[in-house]
Amino acid sequence: MIQNKLSFHQSSVSLEIIGLPDYSNNDNKDQISIISEWKLTIIDKPLIEGKIDHLGPIMNAFYIYSSLLIKNENPIYESRLIDIKADNLYIHNIVLKSSKENVKPLILKIGNSLLSDIINCFDQLNESSKVITKKTGLSINIPKKVRFGINNKVKFFNFIMPPFIAICSLILLSSTFIYFYNPVEDKERNELINPK
């Protein structure tokens, strides 16, 4: 049986998902419900690949790490398969550990732009209608604490911005009228219209 391949691209990163549709659930022939393997290609870095049971934990790691980075907390993530920590504000160290014995861990250093591109590829995968992640056993578990913090910041920002923009607009408009208004000319005009 020919497997389907779907690719998700963002600048210098590409995520390829390989698998089959689940015909018992009336899946479309172009869909992937059973992921057999995946490959993450980053320009100038070694190829990262694995099975479905590796993809979920690695996606979780990147999501949690990037959330910690946004919250300005000490961004360190460590697990059985992957460790991520910041070298400085711009460089992130990633250690990918193999589930096979006697295989050395893969160590990568990536910048903010590559981190963003990787997250974007994972987002494209999550939002794709052609890959049914719920049936594949791929679970993305962002802790509630992290989700709550991000959602609250976005809600607060959306709540505060419209009134802030409105007040700034009023101040700008009022200052414009004050700048062009000349009370001496107004007094002279009134004396011409209504002479004593």
UniProtKB/TrEMBL annotation:
The keyword Membrane applies. The keyword Transmembrane helix applies. Keywords: Membrane, Transmembrane, Transmembrane helix. It comes from the Bacteria. The chain crosses the membrane at residues 156-181. Pfam families: DUF4335. This is Uncharacterized protein. It comes from Prochlorococcus marinus str. MIT 9201.
